[in-house]
Amino acid sequence: MASIATKIASRKPKTTSTSRSKSSASQKEQTLDGLFKDELKDIYSAETQLVDALPKMAKAAFSEELQDAFTKHFEETKRHVERLEKIFNRLEIDKSEVESCKAMEGLIEEANKIIENYEEGHVRDSALIIGAQKVEHYEIASYGSLCELADVLRYPQIKNLLGRTLDEEEMTDEDLTGLAQEINDEAYEMGQQEREETY
Ligand SMILES: [Fe+2]
């Protein structure tokens, strides 16, 4: 039986260099290095969108602890943007090639809907944490993959910069999980009190 490694090695790309030039992917560099740069551009767009969105989320939070968590992450996010700009300089990536990250556009739109749909209070806070954790998980997936690519492509310093950001995203996610436990409890208790007063 052929090993997985043999099976992978025996697979051939479906397109030849001639047919590839005619395909819809013709604008993309078909290398791991090209993919790495594209993913860097994607997360750069995501981070810059987040710099704009986080102050609004902090303002919308009812709990002071959640406001502080969003404000702290806003400051960190500005550093994440700076790290990516450093990487762009090293790899000579042109910022004008950055396209808007659709995933982050959607996640921020959802956060805005939360603010519209829920009045200020514990339940809105619970919902904001869910929205923020969805954002964090997108970023963790992106930075985790970028660290792996940086490793394969032998960019140790860049991997180090990306790894620092990944650590901060993971810490933020953990902090939000801790806050969710407190805030969900409070939201539940408030709901119970209201129910008791009504019935
Ligand atoms: Fe970030």
Write a structural description.
With 199 residues, this protein is mostly helical. The chain has a single domain, classed as Ferritin (Up-down Bundle), CATH 1.20.1260. It has helices spanning 4-10, 17-22, 32-60, 64-91, 102-117, 122-152, 156-198. The protein binds fe (ii) ion (FE2).
Structural domain count: 1
Global morphology: elongated
Q: Give the CATH superfamily.
A: Ferritin, core subunit, four-helix bundle
Share of residues in helices:
over 70%
Radius of gyration: 21 Å
Present the secondary structure layout.
Elements: H1 4-10, H2 17-22, H3 32-60, H4 64-91, H5 102-117, H6 122-152, H7 156-198
The protein binds fe (ii) ion.
Short description:
By secondary structure, the protein is mainly α.
Key attributes of the depicted protein:
7 helices, 0% strand, Ferritin, 199 residues, mainly alpha
